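Incident log, structure service

09:12 report received: a user says their structure output differs between two submissions of the same chain.
09:20 pulled the input from the user's history:
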Amino acid sequence: MDTDTDTATATATATATVSVTRKRHPHDDAPRTAAAFARLSHLPGGPERDALRDELVRVWLPMSERIAGRYRGKGEPYEDLRQVAALGLVKAVDGYDPERGHAFESYAVPTVTGEIKRHFRDHMWALHVPRRVQELRNRVRVALRDLAATGSDRRPSVAELAEHTQLSEEDVQAGLEALDSFTALSLDAETPGEDAGMTLVGLLGEWDAGFDLVVDREAVKPALRTLPERERIILYLRFFQGMTQSRIAEQLGVSQMHISRLITHSCATVRERVLADAA
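09:34 re-ran on a clean worker, output below:
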């Protein structure tokens, strides 16, 4: 018997093994698969086990799709949610241990739901947000909904939310900020206020090159003070007064070549001392 025949036979056997008889249940589409899972747990790897596993996934797919349906309209295409839920179902089938005595759906539902929530956490945020902050956001969101159900028209204060959630006010504040940070605002968006046409990108500052100049000047001051007075004068005339080497040479009564050598030597000395101090 070839491999294709073995697989076809195993699939037919798996289909016959999995009972799809319905019963009254919180999940109307819950099939009776306890015997099939018990058999799966004792089968060695091979076509027969693979076929039974695939059949179990197939008969439980309606449940995973219904769980995915609960998250419609939350920013993700339903087809993507169905695929994520199906992945969670596969993980549930692979991880379920019938010997623990619990029904499969009691293990599968939180597994599928967790996979969908993980998908939202990893793919829906415009920026990476730590998981703890996401959890704070969820707790604050639920608290806002619960307190709104009491009939109050005003938004609960941070203190009231902290009392309701048993969180610190700092954690509540972080959760509130995360509520408004699910998506990023475009830099081309107009800013609120009186400045019509002003965008966020127009409010961004730019690096001022003058800061680098200040830092460099402060760094070389101690090294400049160690130079001989004539070399300090030459550097001052060249770099602060903008005089040419020829004019400096005329003023000091020396050759232009000598001024050039002194400037080169002085700059090298200052550089070495600044680097030494930085190290």
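09:41 both user submissions now match this output. Likely a transient worker issue. Closing.
09:42 reviewer note: Confidence is low (pLDDT under 50) at residues 20-27. The CA atoms of residues 22 and 58 lie 15 Å apart.
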